[in-house]
């Protein structure tokens, strides 16, 4: 077994969604996107899997919906936080 086989289920989903939400904002830098993703991921419970279907298969519909809502909230909050911090610091 190799450590490369294990990943946090939310990582790719969060990064892709952050990029999708801010891609048309010319003021958002790559560093800000990374910060947004990190803040969001730190607000979600870690879900380590070998294959994404491993987690999805065992979740109920209610649990899947709760995960989607939690991820949406974490991403929305992280984008707001990083944008506000950036406005305050001017960086």
List keywords for this structure.
4 helices, two-stranded antiparallel ribbon, mainly alpha, 91 residues, 2 strands
Describe the protein:
- The protein is mostly helical and 91 residues long.
- The protein has one domain.
- Helices cover 68% and strands 4% of the residues.
- The model has no long low-confidence stretch (mean pLDDT 92).
Strand order of the largest sheet: 1-2
Note the quaternary state here: single chain
Strand residue percentage: under 5%
Topology pattern, helix = H, strand = E: EHHEHH
* Tally of separate domains: 1
The biggest sheet, with number of strands, parallel, antiparallel or mixed sense and barrel status, is: 2 strands, antiparallel
Tally of DSSP helical segments = 4
- CA-based shape: globular
User: How many strands appear in the DSSP assignment?
Assistant: 2
User: Unreliable runs, pLDDT <50, ≥5 residues?
Assistant: none
Give Rg in angstroms: 15 Å
Distance between the termini: 43 Å
Q: What percent of the residues sit in helical stretches (DSSP H or I)? A: 55-70%
What is the average per-residue confidence, as pLDDT, rounded to a whole number?
Answer: 92
Class by alpha and beta content: mainly alpha
Offer a concise description of the structure.
The protein has helices at residues 10-22, 30-42, 52-58, 61-89, and strands spanning 7-8, 48-49.
List the helices and strands and how they pair.
Layout: E1 7-8, H1 10-22, H2 30-42, E2 48-49, H3 52-58, H4 61-89
Antiparallel strand pairs: 1-2
